[in-house]
Structure formats: structure tokens, C-alpha cells
């Protein structure tokens, strides 16, 4: 596909929004260049292609930027018609977030069909290859909570 030659994705490894776009590209079999963005030191490329919000992910297709992960996924699905992927939602990070904050959002008893779908989704080799390492992700989400807990003394009344 000639259209694929000019596909770039600006994202960051820890962003579920970037991961959503990466998964869509991989599930469609689209070749792309991935550009890792440092959100604390934003690159000129990010500022050029998303000057208003200055956020990731940004998909650049033939020099034109598309922003907002759900819009990007819709664009991918509409541009490359083979292997449709919508409508689908992914929630690979919910389990990590539930563990970090100690609250259960989704469980098998309340959402059995969704949990079964998530299990099938996460068993896909494409998804497995795209997810960041679990321990790295867990550390990423725990660090701010631990830092906050360390900086604020507990007050009991």
C-alpha cells in the first residue's frame, strides 16, 4: 500500500491513548514510524503538528496530523478498510489501575461478557507485543501515589 509510506505516530510508552493507536495500526497491518515523545520536554515536531493542545498521540499521514486517540482510530479504520476494528473498546490498563488504587471497577461477577472479551483481547499476540512490561507500568502508576503519600502527613481527627 503506497498510502502507508508516510505514516508516523508521535506517542509515549506509558500512554494508554498512544497504545490504543499503536494497536489499531498493528491490527490493520499498517507500517509506521513510531516517535517516542518526552512529555516534559516537548519536541518541535509535536509542537508543529499539535500546536494548540501539545498532547500525544498524533498520527501524521502524508504530512497531515490527526489528534485525539479515538478520532485517530476512526481515521485508521476508515482509511484502511480491510480488517475493520471498530466498534471496540480496549481497557488493558484498568487492571493495573485497579491494583494501584485498590478499587475494583470491573469484575467477572458484574461484567462477565466484558471480562471474557478482555481476556480474549489480551491473549492476542499483537496486543501482547504492544503492551508495556507490567512491572514498568505498575511502577509508573505507583510512583506518584507513593510520592504524594510521602510528602503529606496523615491527619486524623
UniProtKB/TrEMBL annotation:
Top-rank EC class of the record's enzyme: transferase
Protein source organism: Stephania japonica
Checking PANTHER family in the record gives: GLUTATHIONE S-TRANSFERASE U8, GLUTATHIONE S-TRANSFERASE, GST, SUPERFAMILY, GST DOMAIN CONTAINING
Q: Which family does it belong to?
A: Belongs to the GST superfamily.
Per UniProt, residues of the GST N-terminal domain are: 5-84
Q: What is its EC number?
A: 2.5.1.18
**Which GO terms of the cellular component aspect does the record hold?**
cytosol
Q: What is this protein called?
A: Glutathione S-transferase
Does the record bear Cytoplasm in its keywords? yes
Main subcellular location? cytoplasm
Outline what the protein does: Is involved in the conjugation of reduced glutathione to a wide number of exogenous and endogenous hydrophobic electrophiles.
Catalyses: RX + glutathione = an S-substituted glutathione + a halide anion + H(+)
Q: Does the keyword RNA-binding apply?
A: no
What Pfam families does this protein's entry cite?
A: GST_N
Q: Where in the cell is it found?
A: Cytoplasm, Cytosol
